Amino acid sequence: MPMGQRWTFRSALVCLIAFLLMAWCAHVAPAQSADLPMLTEKFGNRSQQADFVIVIDRSGSVRRFWQAIKAAVAEFVSAVPDGDYVSILAFDAAAVDLLTPRRVDAASRGSFTEQIRALADPRGAFTDLGAGVEYTLRELNRPQANRLQFVFFFTDFKHDPPSGSRWKSRDCRTEDWAALRRQKERTFDARDGVVKIFALKLPLDAEVGRDFGLFQCVFGDVEGVDVGDSAILKDWFERKRAEIYREKIKIQIESEKNPGIDLALKDEGYRNRLSLVVASRCRTLDVEVESLSLAGGSAGGDLRFSPVRIDPFVLRPGENRTINVEVEDAAGGEFEIEQCRESAVAAQIEATAVLAPADEIRLLTEPRFSRKAGQESTVTCCRGIPLWWPATGAALLAIFLGGVYMRWVKPEYIGGTLVIERERKQEDKPTRREEIFRRRTLLVGNTDKCRKEGIHSTLFSGEEGQNVPVELEFRGRIPRMLRASPQRGVYVRITAGRGVIEQDQLDLKTNRIKKAKRLLSGEYSVGDDPLDASTVIYVGRCKVYFK
């Protein structure tokens, strides 16, 4: 092809297949309009599904066009409507399914096109047209085939079969070629449908189309397109009846525009409010609602509608949008608490909307339209403060005060079983247990103050009767008002003697719990942790803990 040609081979091939798809949609082979791509996509004939059989020459001579063929076929599969059936066959010395035939839908389309783009380069040594035709006829005769069937043959139509082929002769009058004709007639006559075949002549060498007569001998009148001659291909496109297609689109647009949208006013039981429902009646096109207005009110004029302010919104086919409309009491005055009334209202609703895609539709007709509707409804109007408002306020206040009490006011008590154990058991009371109940503070040790005010134990005494003073103070503490510290819980300090406290702590480096020890302080501090089930206090040879 000359370097200055306007269309490249690949773009011409892609456009051709896109046209063939549009031919199926219109049933009359009009070319799709390049300036209406979105409308072309939306108004595809989805009511009648089709079979698409793509037959590709897999001989080695096709290799230089292979990328263009794959790209064109992939784009074609991307455009096929959901539910259509696609078969991709290949032939050289024999014919096979190049990919598994399947019904195309949203779930399979992406993987199908990827498989097409990943097909290996052709390496066949022969081009057996008879094998390709015979396999195609079998595919057209599949069970539950669609009524519309389209076949695309990609080859140079230069018959070069292997020596053992049944169709090695280039004379279509032989019995084997005659058998193919009879098979074609049985296939076509046995079904109530339409089969259209397109022969795409690949310019592999100077003898392109040499045996196209064999192909026509089987299929009869076949439309052949020389895809290598871009000027012929372009003229072929321009001669198609694009005007018919555009008129068909225009008629469909008008059917979408009327009725376009429905407007309804509904009472859904809310006080002082009605619902304005805007519903799309379009089957295919989106509609953008630009403005809404309401006029009217009650018969006496005491009720009126608040202005409706909306941002433009888009409705998909079959969708609806509900908009709240406030109802005002134009008479003024105050109702008593919980006094309501039900009134009848009438409204004149007007809406302005635009069909989308507006830019493409504007090339054919006006996309903007308006709708008016008269609606009657009832509305419940109430004024004053509902009784549940103060009740709710009181409940919230009670919850708040209860939360304040539980966090910052409620006392923290000491309770449980206090255990004092001696490391080396003595014959006289090596372990002591005391049940503690609702104590704000608790002294434990061997001092006189513990004997008077708390729990006195001789287990704290030293060796050979040495009495080392020991005094532990346990105290229930709560957070300071409106603060988070200290944490609510029981704390301990040592007021006489020396001791160590052991508790479980989280090691931030290993994210594991480990035992941590620290000296007991004589004062409570912000950094202290409350006692828990893991806390053990060591004083001399004794350990103290709660169970």
Strand content: 25-35%
What structural category characterises the helix and strand content?
alpha+beta
Low-confidence stretches at least 5 residues in length (pLDDT < 50)? Answer: 1-7, 21-32
* Proportion of residues in helical segments: 25-40%
List the helices and strands and how they pair.
Layout: H1 9-26, H2 37-42, E1 50-57, H3 66-79, E2 85-91, E3 95-103, H4 106-117, H5 129-140, E4 148-155, H6 175-189, E5 194-201, H7 212-219, E6 223-226, H8 230-238, H9 242-257, E7 261-266, E8 273-280, E9 286-298, E10 303-305, E11 313-315, E12 320-329, E13 339-356, H10 358-361, E14 368-383, H11 388-409, E15 414-422, E16 431-439, E17 441-445, H12 448-453, E18 455-456, E19 471-477, E20 489-496, E21 500-507, E22 512-519, E23 536-539, E24 542-546
Helix pairs in contact: 1-3, 1-8, 3-4, 5-6, 6-7
Any key phrases for this structure?
547 residues, alpha+beta, six-stranded mixed β-sheet, 12 helices, six-stranded antiparallel β-sheet
Tell me what the structure shows.
With 547 residues, the protein is an alpha+beta fold. The chain is built from 12 helices and 24 strands. A hairpin with a 6-residue loop joins strand 7 (261-266) and strand 8. It starts with 8 loop residues before the first helix and ends with a strand.
Task: Give a nutshell description of this structure.
The protein is of the alpha+beta class. The chain has twelve helices and 24 strands.
